[in-house]
Fold each of these.
Amino acid sequence: MAWREANFDGIVGPTHNYAGLSYGNVASASNKGDIANPREGALQGLEKAQHLMSLGMTQGVLPPHDRPSLRALRAHGFTGSDREMLAKAWEASPALVANVTSSATMWTANAATISPSADTADGRTHFTPANLAAMYHRSVEWPVTARVLKAIFPEGDRFAHHNALEGGTHMGDEGAANHNRFCADYGDTGVALFVYGRGAFEKADDLIYPGRQTLEASRAVARQHGLTPKKTLFVRQNPAAINAGAFHNDVVAVSNKDVFFYHEDAFVNPDQLERDIKGAMGDIRMHFVRVPRALVPLADAVKSYLFNSQLISTPNREGMTLILPSEVAEMRSTKAYVEELTGSGELISHADYLDVRQSMRNGGGPACLRLRVALSDDDMGAIGANAVLHEGLVSTLQAWVNNHYRDRVTPDDLGDPMLMEESFAALDELTQILKLGSIYDFQQ
């Protein structure tokens, strides 16, 4: 039976803006208050997905969430019609409105942690939506994320779903952005590497920015997915990387099959980590591409998002391909490194640069925009929505974006009831296009 890694990209939402909500995310903070272009952002994301399709990859999409979150506003005591609640909230706290109107759900690497059926005790693919407890604007996401995932991957013989972890920031879980899986091929038993920033019940005095993922949360996800302990590893991210702006491990590391591409400063003891991975992999040979700080300083890696790339195996190319943000080609150190890496042609032979600047300015590169799911042919047949892309669906989504999205949104626009109503109308139509059912609170 054939297996593949499918990428489900988040569609940039109609309320995409630069409110600078993500503490520890350097790009988000540096672009706070800038004018955003949701239409351009959504089209850039669809162009990225279309490029991967042209390489022979299986590509899907996940929808934006309904923003502002009316459920969150009601939870804060606001009452009345949708317009009345928004007006009252905007008068009381524009900062609260900015948080509940965030379009951060575009970064679907944070949507969930996924363990494919080859790795789990019951032979099903397991999904745990991330609680994203470290940041309020993201902590409100998981109920809708769970509905979306259940609509696309129906609970049953092939797919199993869990609730987000309880426990607040002590059990902070940031999803697949802090999870790597190594394997010979996607359908083979793999090794899961969970990367955490701190212990739940310890004071991390070596951190300036929050360690969003906790060890205890990672262990809990591994347990409820039924992963084999000897095939499951836990490692702490280097505090220096977090303090440099690598708020998730996918800012300094990315993997595909038996290749691990990471920065020298991503982990405190990379030599030991490589030994541990080799031991867990057994007879399967691992390949490590450790990028030295002498060639790419950590600050350059974080600013360019060299490692927040997609590392993929395409059907028609020898060697793996990096899907990189165009910013990598604009920085001397990262451009030179990628040219040397791909020029050797040993493991990673191709580098494709794509423009995802609307996302990048908020701190999300190509890897942030996608959720990876290893699927068999039978799994593909069990998908329950119209979320796997083909050229006709891409054209439909592009037309949908052009019809509904603004080309200019500022943080001051978030109190505009027309933006809310435009967004809800767009998303209502999108659920019909993707055949998702009534997944949004305003549709309940």
Note: Residues 417-434 form the longest helix (18 residues).
Amino acid sequence: MTVPPISPPGQAPAPLLRRILLQGRYESLTMLRNGEQLILAVVLPLLALVGLTVTPLLDGLGGSRVNVAVPGILALCAMSTAFTGQGIATGFDRRYGVLRFLSTTPLGRTGLIAGKVLAVLAVLALQVVVITAVALPLGWNPPAAGWLPGLGLLVLGAAAFTALGLLVAGTVRPEATLAITNLLWILLGALGGIVIPAERLPAAAQGIVHYLPSGALGEALREAFLLGTIDVGAAFILLVWTALAGAAAIRWFKWN
């Protein structure tokens, strides 16, 4: 597996910001060139958006089908890229020694993690553009006041899922990372309150999903893009997940 050059041999390393930007660019292109991750990040969310728009599953939830569906699809995009995509990529980078190698270069561990975060944000921005371009012709009409809190909460959700993805990738074998992240993507996507609101889930799940990062992000984005307000409780839950998963990843992450 090739890695991006940080500086030519015999020369001083580039400034830290440039190193991070180069690593972020490399990570972004790697994710977008991977067919499996591209399907997970773009194709499946688009199929889910169209499916929820043409079926009555979301009827009676305080808005048109597409208005209720899009926030959940954006949340699903964040989970796809930050948790599943980044988790799998990091797990196999660890297996092939890429993480250990890059952590000893001028990029360093801090620059490597920053590059991964930058890549998640870059791919997520592309997903938002694609989903918006498809949703607007379908009739999506979010309140103008909802964009700022909605995008802020989306970034917060991406931070929580990135921390969880790095925690899994850094503590188990790559094959297990592949299985765990894909399985959780399916379970959280279907029953985690991220796409389907809690009130439409089985009664046994309704009291739990609000405390999951998937349920908190889904509910927070629905309130932002439907009502133009911030769900403070959901935002707090996302902050807690980000802090706990981030601390656990720092504590137990294995670089080789």
Note: Residues 50 and 66 are 8 Å apart (CA to CA).
Amino acid sequence: MRFTGLANWGEMFREPAFWHAVWVTVKYAFVTTVSEILLGLGIALLICKKDNSFSRALKVLLVFPLMVAPVIATIIWQLMTNTSVGILEKFLNLFGVYGFPWASSPSTALFTAALIDIWVYTPFVIVLVVAGINSLPKSPFESAQIDGGSPWFTFKNLTLPMLKPFLYIALIFRLMASMQEYGIIFALTKGGPGDTLMNLSLTAYNKGFAFLKFGEAMPYILFLWVIIYIISKKLVSNWLLVQKKASGR
């Protein structure tokens, strides 16, 4: 071994594979995080609208994916999307769609990986939002109902502003996790087809453990850590600023 200074960092920034990995990381994180926040919020509002035995049973069922390891969830989805016996493939056959490529095509690989991620982690957002809805005060909603406020007015001016702390927590946790996602992508295609899903985590793994170039792999992980730290710190700072202004009023 020999000391190389910042040579590995310079080499990383000159590699097209690095910029491709950055793009895949950002794209995957954006698609999964936005989808999970929106779906989690929508489903939580629906199941909290009526408190009956059906909604309580639905809450339990929706939390089930959180108890499944991401790799196991990926194997389950591989079976469901199998072109011979997969239940999702048979469902698409009803609409005249046969042999959907799923993870075997560069054009649909990201969609398939994101679909698994959304199935596994949307319940996390649902749990947070449901807890937030149950903790909201009742009097503002009763006043809005007496004054004839529409459901959209109530959601826009009461529910959503008061749920912001819970949505911020979900956003920070899911964004950080999706940017460093490894298990789902590795179990699904190992970064393929080709380099379609080679994000920063998988690229670092290949360099470090497949090619035993740990010096070249380290900058990828450190770069990912710096990006996650900056984004999460910015989100937390913005939220604290909003809370300070709100308390000042």
Note: The mean pLDDT is 87.
